Amino acid sequence: MIIVLKPDATEENLQTVLEKLKSLGLSGHVSKGEFRTIIGAIGDESILHNQPLEAFPGVEKVMPILQPFKLASREFKPEDTVIRVDKQEIGGQKLQVMAGPCAVEERELLLEIAYQVKESGANFLRGGAFKPRTSPYNFQGLEEEGLKYLAEAREKTGLLIVTELMDPREMGLVKEYADIIQIGARNMQNFRLLKEVGSQEKPVVLKRGMSATVKELLMSAEYILSEGNHKVILCERGIRTFENFTRNTLDLSAVPVIKSLSHLPVIVDPSHGVGKWEFVSPMAKAAIAAGADGLLIEVHPYPEKAFSDGPQSLLPSRFKDLMTDLARVAQAINRTI
Ligand code: PEP
Ligand code: MN
After folding, report:
1. Cβ(300) to ligand 1 under 6 A?
2. Fewer CB within 10 Å, N or C, the chain?
3. Could you report the per-residue pLDDT of 153-193, keeping only the tens digit for each?
4. Pocket of ligand 1 contains residue 132 by CB under 6 Å
5. Up-side HSE of residue 120: CA atoms within 13 Å toward CB?
6. Domains in the chain: how many in total?
7. What string of DSSP letters covers 163-221?
8. 285 and 320 housed in the same domain
9. What are phi and psi of 31, to 5 degrees?
C-alpha cells in the first residue's frame, strides 16, 4: 500500500502514520520527494482494508501498489535510487564502468589489467574467483586465492571490487573481499542465494537470467530488497532468442523499460550480451544512450590465452578508446563518466 502525504504534512503527521503501521505489524518505508512524502507499507496489506488511514492528519490518499514487485517499483519510490560504494555512486549523474577479466587467472595478470582499466577511467575492477561454467571440466576459478589477488589489486589501484558469489556457503568469504557482490545470470532465481545477499549490507549486482523476463528480474530483486538490503543494481546481459550469430540478444529495450518500472540503477553487460569483442563497443555506447547507469565490460590483454570468454574480451587499448567515446555519448545525455 502507498500512503501519500499532503504537501503541507508535518513530521509529526508522518511519525503518527509510521507508528500506526508498526502497531499493525507492517513496515513503513519513507520516500521524501521534492513536493511530497510517500510511505510504502509492506507486509500483509489486507490488515489495512479496515483502517481509516485516509482520515489521519496529513494523509492525502491511500493506494494499493499494483506491481507484484513492491519495494523495487517506482510506485513505491518515485525517485531514482543512488547507491554509494565507498566514494563512488551508482545510479547518479556519473556513469560507472566495471571492467576486468572474466575470471581472475594469475596475480600479475590481474594487476596488469587493473592498472590498465584504472588508467582508462574505470572505478571498479570486475573478475570472477568462483566461475559458473557450463562444463565441470572447465576452469572453475581460483576461489579464495583469486579473491586475495582482487583485494591486492584494490589496495594498489584504489579500484573497487565486483566479484561473483555462487553459493550461500561462500558468502562470508566473498563478502570479506568484495565491494559489490555479483549474482550471475544462472543464479538469478536461486532464491536461497538471493535471501542470503539480501540479509547483508554489501551492494549486489543482479544479472538478468538468460531466459528471464523483466518482471522476473524485478521479482528476484524483490527477494533481496525484502530481506533488508536496498542496494541492488540490475544488470541486462542478453537473453536467449532464435538469433545465434551473437552469443545472446542484448535487450537494450529492457533499460528504459526497467527505468520506467523501477527506481533501481540499471547497468548493461554488452560482453556477455554479444559474445564477440567487435560488437561490444557499439552496444556499450548504445546502452549508455538508452539510459543505463553504467557498464560491465570484460577486458583481457591476451584474449587468445584467456581461461574463459576471450572472444568477447576487449584489448586494453580498445577499452581505452571506448572510454573516450563514452565520454562524448555521456555528454550528449547530460551525464559524465
Ligand atoms: C560473468 O560476468 O563473467 C558471467 C559469468 O556472467 P553471466 O552470469 O551474465 O553469464
Ligand atoms: Mn564472462
Report:
1. no
2. C
3. 999 999 999 999 999 999 999 999 999 999 999 999 999 99
4. yes
5. 28
6. 2
7. EE---GGGHHHHHHH-SEEEE-GGGTT-HHHHHHHHTS-S-EEEEPPTT--HHHHHHHH
8. yes
9. -125, 110
Q: Is a pLDDT exceeding 90 seen at residue 29?
A: no
Residue 113 to residue 316: CA distance in whole angstroms? 8
Q: Identify the three-state secondary structure at position 247.
A: coil
* CATH code, domain carrying 92: 3.20.20.70
- State which amino acid sits at residue 11: E
Question: Which among 272, 296, 313 is the best mutation to test ligand 1's pocket, defined by most ligand atoms within 8 Å of the CB?
Answer: 272
User: How do beta strands 180-183 and 88-90 pair?
Assistant: unpaired
Domain that holds residue 129: 83-332
Tens of pLDDT, residue by residue over 271-313, are 999 999 999 999 999 999 999 999 999 999 999 999 999 999 9
What are the tens digits of pLDDT across the range 253-265? 999 999 999 999 9
Spatial CB neighbours of 202, under 8 Å, sequence gap ≥ 6: 175, 178, 179, 180, 181, 229, 231
Element (H, E) at 149: helix 144-157
Q: Whose CA is nearest to atom 6 of ligand 1?
A: 184
- Note whether 55 and 121 are same-domain residues: no
Q: How far is CA 240 from the centre of its chain?
A: 20
